[in-house]
Automatic annotation (TrEMBL):
NCBIfam families per the UniProt record, alphabetical: GGGWT_bact (NF040941)
Name assigned to this protein: Fibrinogen C-terminal domain-containing protein
Fibrinogen C-terminal domain location: 74-310
Cell compartments where the protein resides: Secreted
Signal peptide start and end residues: 1-27
SUPFAM superfamilies linked: Fibrinogen C-terminal domain-like
Xref: PROSITE patterns: FIBRINOGEN_C_1 (PS00514), FIBRINOGEN_C_2 (PS51406)
GO BP term, pick one: platelet aggregation
InterPro entries associated with the record: FIB_ANG-like, Fibrinogen-like_C, Fibrinogen_a/b/g_C_1, Fibrinogen_a/b/g_C_dom, Fibrinogen_CS
Length: 325
């Protein structure tokens, strides 16, 4: 007959062996308190002896792990913060406080981790899926590049597209918000937030808009514009895969980048990068957010970022935490 003490003893011993064998030791925790959190660090991620992908970044500002007999014990003293979401039996996801920067994230345990810029402003937890800031990266690319992702993942201003597959994986567990930060060539900034951002087999869905850049994804203010330019429910189109509603041609070829084109658009943040605001040409192919500067103004900066709803802006909240202070 096994006594409780015997079972605990086995588990404890096993745990200690894992700790000793694992590179995720105390000394690796670093200033973020999360092993392997520095950009490019392989620590923990390729450890074959760990039976559970513990302490991996699930998405920006989160880690996943397994509940254990010792939850609340010495593990808790290392890094565990209040549990944010239970994923299923034994599994949890939790938020962690980290600095903005590049992290290896792994939204799906059965796929390889990948690099993304984590923006920890506005309450944290933003995974940047697109960024334009200097025109160095070519966004006029084909289906496979948009599917897998492209660009540079090192500098603070590096330009990239995270990849439709990676974005899809990040969106698979429940609701996410999309925030779009924009800047024009005078340095003025605007933003748009969409609740319930989803990609259904690359098809774009989104909910309520808020912000001060205007709701360009819905196609503009009048019904005629919305019919031809709303991006809601549109499939992704590239120059080599035409899924748009423009029968006479390919919107991605005309507008120089992959996007959820209709016939064709009211916003295209993957368009051509013009080095001054106003531009002209045979097509409105600039980096466009029409509800702010119109179709013939190409923006200087854009960042598209997503996060799960359990992050809360530092400036907003339900008021519970501030009572009596
Ligand atoms: Ca077409």
């Amino acid at each position: 007959m096994f006594s409780i003490r015997f079972v605990l003893g086995i588990c404890l011993r096993k745990r200690w062996v894992l700790l000793l064998k694992s590179p995720c030791s105390l000394s690796d925790l670093g200033d973020t308190g999360v092993p392997g959190s520095a950009a490019g660090t392989e620590t923990c991620l390729d450890e074959p002896n760990l039976p559970v992908p513990k302490f991996l970044h699930y998405s920006c500002g989160t880690v996943t792990g397994m509940h254990s007999l010792f939850f609340g014990g010495f593990e808790n003293n290392l890094i565990l913060l209040p549990v944010a979401k239970i994923l299923g039996f034994g599994h949890y996801i939790e938020s962690v406080n980290t600095k903005s920067g590049y992290y290896r994230i792994r939204p799906r345990a059965d796929r390889e981790p990948f690099l993304a810029f984590c923006d920890m402003s506005d309450g944290g937890g933003w995974t940047v899926i697109q960024r334009r800031s200097n025109g160095k990266e070519n966004f006029n690319r084909k289906w496979d590049d948009y599917k897998l992702g492209f660009g540079e993942f090192q500098g603070k201003n590096d330009e990239y597209w995270l990849g439709n597959d990676h974005i899809h994986d990040l969106l698979t567990r429940g609701e996410n918000s999309l925030k779009i930060d924009l800047m024009d060539w005078h340095g003025e900034r605007r933003y748009a937030i969409y609740e319930n951002f989803q990609l259904d087999n690359y098809r774009l869905w989104f909910g309520t808009y808020s912000g001060n850049a205007g709701d360009a994804l819905s196609g503009g203010s009048n019904f005629e514009d919305q019919w031809s330019a709303s991006h809601r429910g549109m499939q992704f189109t590239t120059s080599d895969k035409d899924h748009d509603r423009f029968l006479a041609g390919n919107c991605a070829s005309e507008n120089k980048g992959g996007w959820w084109f209709n016939r064709c658009h009211a916003a295209n943040l993957n368009g051509r990068y013009y080095r001054r605001g106003k531009y002209s040409g045979s097509h409105d192919d600039g980096m466009v957010w029409s509800t702010w500067h119109g179709m013939w103004y190409s923006l200087k900066y854009s960042a598209m970022k997503i996060r799960a709803p359990f992050f809360v802006d530092s400036e907003s909240g339900d008021g519970e935490n501030s009572q009596g202070r």
